[in-house]
Specification:
- By secondary structure, the chain is of the alpha/beta class.
- The chain has a single domain, classed as Leucine Aminopeptidase, subunit E, domain 1.
- It is built from five helices and seven strands; from the N terminus they run E-E-E-H-H-E-E-H-E-H-E-H.
- A seven-stranded mixed β-sheet has the order 1-2-7-6-3-5-4, with helices on both faces.
- Helix 3 runs parallel beside helix 4 and helix 4 packs across helix 5.
- It is globular and about 45 Å long.
- It starts with a strand and ends with a helix.
- 45% of the residues are buried.
- The mean pLDDT is 98.
- The structure holds ligand AR6.
- Ligand AR6 binds next to strand 3 and helix 1.
Length: 178
């Protein structure tokens, strides 16, 4: 599914984030930038050791923020490592921290003149964020940003399962009345 938000395109696809041809892909990282499973493991495996070497130099990233490295051997020139919250009960700042992970990623994209960016569904795997709530936050945060930042020409969400794709599609239709 794809919709236009102001001057930008917002796309949903089912697939693997490591195979995207956007200028940047976003990693669902941890605050130590130490690597792990899920998206993080897949990105470091596909991108090679250069990415971890840069992460080590940076040292870490607070939850709700993001840092940028090169894309190593990936098609994408950059990896933006965003740190989403571990979900507890939704009353420990999780919504704001999740929104922050997306906002920071977009801000880094703008600062680095990146025009196309692909996101995974941050925090909805190992970190346990209920996916419907996470999708509402993810999509509304990105829509808000695109409305005032036409320099981002394409924002794409890459969903790893058909279920996740359908859920994001439902939420995007609700948010845009598409
Ligand atoms: N492409 C797109 N989406 C994927 C892929 C992929 N290759 N692999 C998994 N997903 P997770 P988190 C989906 O666990 O919840 C790591 O160990 C997956 O189905 O990757 O933010 C880090 O080091 C889920 O919907 O990230 C952290 O310690 C979503 O991506 C921690 O896990 C996010 O799942 C971060 O946990």
């Amino acid at each position: 599914m794809e919709v236009r938000i102001n001057k930008s395109k917002l796309e949903l696809v089912e697939g693997d984030i490591t195979r995207q041809d956007t200028e940047a892909i976003v990693n669902a990282a941890n605050s130590r930038l130490a690597g792990g499973g899920g998206v993080d493991g897949a990105i470091h495996r596909a991108g090679g050791p250069q990415i971890m070497a840069e992460c080590k130099k940076i040292g870490g990233c607070p939850t709700g923020e993001a840092v940028i490295t090169s894309g190593g051997r990936l098609k994408a020139k950059y990896v933006i490592h965003a740190v989403g919250p571990v979900y507890r009960d939704g009353r420990h700042g999780e919504p704001e921290l999740l929104a922050g992970a997306y906002k920071y990623s977009l801000k880094l994209a703008s600062e680095n003149k990146i025009k196309s960016i692909a996101f995974p569904s941050i925090s909805t795997g190992a970190y346990g964020y209920p996916i419907r709530n996470a999708a509402e936050i993810a999509l509304s945060t990105v829509i808000n940003y695109l409305n005032s930042h036409p320099e981002i020409e394409l924002a794409r969400f890459v969903l790893f399962s058909a279920d996740a794709y359908v859920l994001y599609e439902t939420v995007l239709k609700e948010l845009t009345k598409a």
